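Summary of Year 1 activities. Much of the first year was spent building the evaluation harness for sequence design. The harness presents a backbone, in tokenized form, and records the residue chosen at every position. We chose the following record to illustrate the format because it has been used consistently in internal testing since the harness was completed.
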């Protein structure tokens, strides 16, 4: 099944990564999940979309009081640290495909820790918020770094601006297929994350992210 999906995304000889392109779909869904948790429950900050945090820093410096400067800066710092760490792991690996599963497993560990923190300490206190932002942003930084090294066209798992631009400006084709899948996956993840956050709280969305990451790690190893 995964092989068929990967072949649908990258037909013919264009796929050099086996089933991994198919696994980027649930990772994109996870992006929507965790950003729903962070934006709706952690001071309106993103743990995956760093473009949003950069402009939030500018807004807060301009005097916007509904945003948190420390939250945005912490998310950016943790994300950079996670990306740096994953970059070093990929550099030491014989191939980026071999680094994919260990890095996804590490991401899973950070989300699991965030789930435990949210269950025990909640997400209202400043200390709990700082811990959750750090854990989730670090994990997303690791994910973004390894996906960037894979370099599957139009499937970054965290950034959609280029995909939406391509959908609007390019002729329909296989690239448009990948772009549309990415947009739908992230929107669906944000929808599910938002619903779970509203009706269950952050642990619900983080538990779903944990399950998906575990599945990706196992499938990637196979």
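For this record, the design step produced the sequence shown next.
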């Amino acid at each position: 099944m995964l092989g068929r999906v990967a072949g649908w995304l990258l037909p013919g000889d264009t796929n050099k990564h086996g089933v991994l392109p198919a696994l980027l779909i649930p990772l994109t869904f996870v992006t929507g999940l965790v950003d729903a948790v962070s934006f709706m429950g952690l001071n309106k900050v993103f743990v995956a979309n760093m473009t949003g945090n950069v402009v939030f820093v500018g807004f807060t410096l301009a005097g916007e009081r509904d945003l948190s400067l420390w939250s945005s800066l912490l998310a950016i710092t943790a994300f950079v640290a996670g990306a740096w760490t994953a970059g070093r792991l990929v550099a030491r690996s014989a191939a980026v495909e071999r680094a994919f599963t260990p890095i996804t497993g590490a991401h899973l560990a950070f989300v699991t820790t965030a789930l435990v923190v949210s269950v025990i300490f909640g997400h209202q206190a400043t200390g709990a918020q700082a811990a959750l932002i750090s854990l989730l942003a670090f994990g997303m930084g690791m994910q973004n770094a390894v996906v960037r090294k894979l370099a599957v066209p139009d499937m970054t798992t965290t950034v959609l601006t280029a995909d939406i631009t391509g959908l609007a400006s390019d002729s329909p084709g296989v690239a448009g297929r990948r772009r549309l899948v990415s947009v739908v996956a992230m929107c669906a993840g944000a929808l599910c994350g938002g619903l779970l956050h509203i009706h269950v709280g952050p642990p619900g969305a983080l538990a779903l992210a944990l399950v998906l990451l575990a599945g990706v790690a196992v499938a990637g190893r196979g």
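The CA atoms of residues 32 and 190 lie 4 Å apart. Quantitative recovery figures across the full test set are reported in Table 2.
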